[in-house]
Specification:
The protein has 159 residues and is α/β, with parallel strands linked by helices. It has two domains: 59 residues, 2,3-Dihydroxybiphenyl 1,2-Dioxygenase, domain 1, CATH 3.10.180.10; 82 residues, 2,3-Dihydroxybiphenyl 1,2-Dioxygenase, domain 1 (Roll). Strands 1-4-3-2 form a four-stranded mixed β-sheet. A four-stranded mixed β-sheet has the order 5-8-7-6. Helix 4 runs antiparallel to helix 5.
């Protein structure tokens, strides 16, 4: 069954490679149907992989091999809530270690230019929680980090 809403992500011929990486890396992720182009198109030939259906952490997506015209930007990112430092490290290292790059405050980019926020739940819960002083301390601690350090966020939360 085709979902009512699907996120379409543009790739330059690497949609299947990206989808396969996401399926191996993120829980509740998989590669689905692959559609080959029924005819030639501006950036491909009949029979080339045109779209790849996949799921990332339960979210339905479609990778479109549309060519080099459009690039991913930080205006769109996946926010992946992690349970602990081990999961944070595993996901961060998988994205960055596979040709990606670090950014600030828990953000990183994969090798295809797609942005990810690898964010421990303790950070999300603290900055949105009722204790505004703890929220500010955790937020200030986060602002000094690239990959989020759970122990430092927990220490900031406690004061």
């Amino acid at each position: 069954m085709i979902p009512k809403n699907t996120i379409c992500l543009w790739y330059d011929g690497t949609a299947l490679e990206a989808a396969t990486f996401y399926a191996k890396t993120f829980p509740d992720s998989k590669v689905g149907a692959i559609m080959r182009a029924p005819g030639d198109y501006p950036d491909g030939k009949q029979g080339d992989i045109l779209t790849v259906e996949f799921t990332v952490a339960g979210i339905p997506c479609m990778g479109l091999n549309g060519g080099p015209l459009f690039k991913h930007s930080e205006a769109f990112s996946f926010v992946i809530a992690t349970e602990d430092q081990a999961e944070t490290d595993r996901l961060w290292n998988a994205v960055v270690g596979n040709g990606g790059q670090e950014s600030e405050c828990g953000w990183c980019k994969d090798r295809w230019g797609l942005s990810w926020q690898i964010t421990p739940r303790v950070l999300l819960e603290t900055v949105s929680g009722p204790d505004r002083a703890a929220a500010k301390r955790a937020f200030d601690a986060m602002m000094t980090m690239k990959k989020i350090d759970v122990a430092k966020i927990e220490a900031a939360r406690r004061g």
